[in-house]
Design brief:
The protein has 372 residues and is mostly beta strands. 13% of the residues lie in helices and 41% in strands. The relative contact order is 0.10.
Length: 372
């Protein structure tokens, strides 16, 4: 139990030095005991915080032993903060007779849990029992926040999705059984998701990274493929094919646009006969990329959104998959060695048994006649 508490303490708080000043890096939302300086006399001193941001004017925390906020307490002869907030970052100092003394510097560290998913996957987050709101801060727009969920009203935000809305499809975000879900992830869903108390204090934080889906198909196994794309409108999709060129000619690879913002190009029909298509998906807000390909269609296909962000990378390969390992001879040599070792062990055991039997002499018991 003591070891568990120590590990938890190391996770929420770490100490460093800059010159002679101690820097305490702590997780937002955690409690904090201020180490009492040797010369600090609370009955005749005031304790204040100089914030790192904002006006940088000192904020009074303890007037002698009287706290100035419900989060602050005078306990065990020092300051106790029940829940830290981002604005608590700064210099803590005490003052007596007009002379200030620096105690330490509080710094809020990022204690977010990191999650990584491919486009089209789903993420779920456990809702803390004390949570009042869930905020989303997009990775593309730091500082801007959107409320995604509240304990009173449920889901209220749309998230970073480009999927649009469809009354016949399932919602992208929803809460169920103390879990909050976001389905059909796209790159704009990347960012920070923070559950907060009613007071605004951080309870838990998750940083999400969404990258393009990767798909590999081989003609030896199938000739028809379907790829789900979490974008409702075809106008928000583009399709680019990178054609393999003859190495003898020395020509560079060429990007061939088959769809631009959802509109088919001439190359789609002249080169591919209109085979790659986007179909509407009715069970979710998205499209299905369908391709009944020919051998000549081998290459790499990139599916992009309106901001040219990569949603999916599809590789069509004509080379047959390797059915045998190129190091098969190592397996054969290893098997032969195992067999030889086994034969040697068996032969030695047989010789040892034969030697034991040759030295064996049966015991004889001579019966003496009983005395009369």
């Amino acid at each position: 139990m003591k070891k568990t508490k120590l590990v938890h303490l190391l996770l929420v708080c770490s100490v460093a030095y800059v010159g002679s000043v101690q820097i305490y890096e702590v997780c937002p939302g955690s409690a904090f005991y201020l180490p009492r300086p040797p010369q600090y006399e609370p009955q005749s001193s005031v304790l204040s915080l100089t914030p790192q941001s904002g006006s940088a004017q000192p904020v009074l925390l303890l007037n002698r032993t009287e706290p100035t906020d419900e989060r602050f307490q005078f306990r065990n002869g020092t300051l106790f903060i029940s829940e830290l907030r981002e604005e608590d970052a700064g210099i803590l100092s005490w003052e007596r007779d007009g002379k200030a003394h620096t105690i330490l510097q509080l710094a809020m560290k990022d204690c977010a849990e990191l999650k990584h998913f491919r486009v089209g996957k789903s993420m779920r987050l456990a809702i803390p029992s004390e949570a009042a709101v869930l905020e989303f801060e997009p990775a593309s727009s730091p500082g801007s926040r959107e409320v995604m969920w509240t304990s009173a009203g449920g889901d209220v935000g749309s998230g970073g999705s480009d999927a649009g809305s469809d009354a016949s499809a399932e919602p992208k975000t929803y809460a169920r059984d103390n879990l909050w879900y976001v389905d059909m992830l796209v790159p704009t869903d990347s960012g920070s998701y923070t559950f907060r108390r009613k007071s605004g204090a951080e309870l838990s934080k998750t940083r999400l990274s969404v990258t393009a889906g990767m798909y590999y198909f081989n003609f030896e196994r199938q000739r028809q493929w379907d790829v789900r794309i979490p974008v409702a409108s075809q106008k928000e999709l583009s399709l680019v094919c990178v054609r393999k060129v003859d190495q003898v000619s020395g020509e560079a690879d060429v990007d061939m646009w088959l769809y631009r913002d959802g509109i088919a190009t001439r190359d789609l029909f002249q080169t591919f006969g209109g085979r790659p298509e986007f179909h509407k998906a009715y069970k979710y807000n998205g499209r299905i990329f369908s391709f009944g390909a020919l051998m000549s269609d081998a290459g790499t296909y990139r599916i992009l959104d309106t901001q040219k962000r990569l949603l999916a990378l599809v590789i069509l390969d004509t080379d047959p998959p390797e059915r045998y390992s190129p190091y098969w001879w190592l397996l054969v040599v290893g098997a032969v060695l195992v067999v030889l070792v086994g034969l040697c062990v068996c032969q030695r055991k047989s010789k040892a048994k034969a030697n034991t039997n040759s030295n064996y002499q049966p015991c004889s018991v001579e019966m003496q006649p009983a005395a009369t």
